[in-house]
Write a structure and sequence with these properties.
The protein is of the alpha+beta class. It is built from 16 helices and 19 strands.
Length: 467
């Protein structure tokens, strides 16, 4: 029995330290398609040395203090919904499972704040505030299988972000435990000019800077009214230009999503019109504002040459938007598939789209290369690429995945785009991070990491390239 396991049991109690092989096997990795493909092909990764399930911040402190003293690697684990390989166990590491820290700490209806322990299921958190007529306003596709701490750690974005913001716009305060066991509480007021915003050390940190233990979100009151709009787009560029006009004129429908024809045929079969794409919107807010926004956008769409499409397409999306695919069903058909979300300025986004789709279509065995947009900003927009490859030899699927992903990320970087809009970096995109941050930015991130985690115990191999 490892000495660190004995010490952990003494520090936090034996029931919180799991060494059962069956349990260890269940939590070897996150939802990254490569890890699941390796499982399917019986190429499983190692399991962790042990799983620890803290129930309070003091437990996390004790765990990290021991790990730091003994130089034992630690991998924070929320609910395992990450898709970039942010968790990949090894036999020398502690897997720190936050799922038992899932309490509602406080819901403040006057200041519109809600505090949760980091392991709280996202949908349960939203339902708790919804019961009081409020909303967090953060709706990732994974809301039912992700944790609120994971949202912060991956710098997530939700489906209603065009109006309500990304997680960095929703987070109010963070409690975290540093690798040496010290607790930090960051964020005490709506805004501060008290030096750099230290919350951003943990936003997008992916478990490399410490463990997030509590999060406080700034809430909204639930919308008074909801309405829908849908339009056909004859080309991807036509719809992108309409979206640019809409957002830059000051209209911010919470949901504004554009699909190319391939994605329309796959997701909206009953709405297909020739080779057209589809632009759908959800409008929310006070009744008068919703009506005015819907009418104004309809006029912009008309002037842009867009025809109205059935609003049933929007309700179809709403009813199926949180579906999480099963990788195994694809592997059984000799198919590997993935979605990669990027973003770029308006002047570059069509270059990204055209070059990515063209490059993907050159991959042997490719059966789908498509894209849609889903998050809109005054200065640019994101694109969500979906690729799928069919190969007779299932052993070749992993190489096809990496070929496709490499093409998406390189074409995006070549056109001033970011290699990750909201899924994070993990292992899947770590080697491409220099394209976003530059050599100086990567060096700065490495310096911050060394200062906070000098013994390099926190989630090694994730996010931050090696020195």
């Amino acid at each position: 029995m490892s000495n660190i396991i004995t010490k952990l049991r003494e520090a936090i109690g034996p029931k919180k330290v799991i060494t059962d092989e069956t349990e260890l096997d269940k939590q070897r990795h996150d939802y990254w398609v490569v890890s699941h493909l390796r499982d399917y092909l019986a190429q499983q990764s190692e399991h962790a040395l042990c799983i620890v399930r803290p129930r309070e911040t003091a437990d996390v402190q004790a765990i990290l203090k021991l790990a730091n003293e003994t130089r034992t690697p630690v991998m924070p684990y929320g609910l395992g919904s990450g898709v970039c390989g942010g968790v990949l166990a090894n036999a020398k590491a502690i897997l720190l499972d936050m799922s038992a820290m899932n309490r509602i700490v406080d819901i403040d209806e006057t200041n519109l704040l809600a505090t949760f322990e980091a392991g709280k299921n996202g949908l349960e958190a939203e339902e708790a505030v919804a019961a009081k007529g409020l909303t967090i306003g953060h709706w990732p596709q994974s809301i039912g299988v992700s944790s609120v701490g994971g949202w912060v750690a991956t710098r997530a974005s939700g489906q209603f972000s065009t109006a309500y913001g990304n997680i960095e716009n929703i987070i109010y305060a963070i409690e975290a435990v540093l690798p040496n066991g010290e607790v930090v509480n960051i964020g005490i007021s709506p805004r501060a000019a008290s030096g750099p915003d230290l919350r951003h050390i943990f936003l997008g940190s992916e478990g490399t800077m410490g463990v997030i233990t509590k999060v406080t979100f700034s809430l909204r009151r639930q919308a008074q009214e909801r309405a829908y709009s849908a339009f056909y787009t004859s080309t991807m560029a036509e719809g992108i230009e309409a979206q640019r006009q809409i957002i830059q004129l000051g209209y911010t429908p919470p949901v504004m999503r554009q699909y190319d024809n391939s994605e329309v045929r796959r997701n909206f079969a009953e709405t297909v019109r020739d080779e057209d794409g589809l632009l759908i919107m959800v409008h929310e807010g006070p009744t008068a504002m919703v009506a005015a926004e819907k009418a104004a956008i309809a006029e912009i769409a008309k002037k842009s040459g867009l025809d109205e499409a059935p609003e049933a397409a929007v309700t179809k999306w709403l009813s199926s938007r949180n579906h999480v695919p099963s990788w195994t069903s694809l592997f059984e058909q000799n198919v590997v598939a993935e979605t990669i979300e990027v973003a770029a300025p308006w002047t570059k986004i069509m270059d990204v789209y055209d070059q990515v789709v063209a490059s993907l279509n050159e991959v042997p065995g490719i059966v789908n290369a498509s894209g849609h947009s889903s998050h809109v900003y005054r200065s640019g927009i994101n694109l969500y690429f979906t690729f799928a490859a069919y190969l007779e030899d299932k052993e070749a699927l992993e190489a096809a995945y990496f070929d496709c992903a490499d093409r998406v990320l390189k074409a995006t970087a070549a056109n001033a785009g970011t290699i990750s809009h909201h899924h994070g970096i993990g292992r899947a995109r770590r080697d491409y991070l220099v394209n976003d941050l530059g050599k100086g930015g990567v060096a700065l991130l490495q310096t911050i990491k060394r200062a906070i985690d000098p013994n390099h115990i926190m989630n090694a191999g994730v996010l931050i390239p090696d020195d």
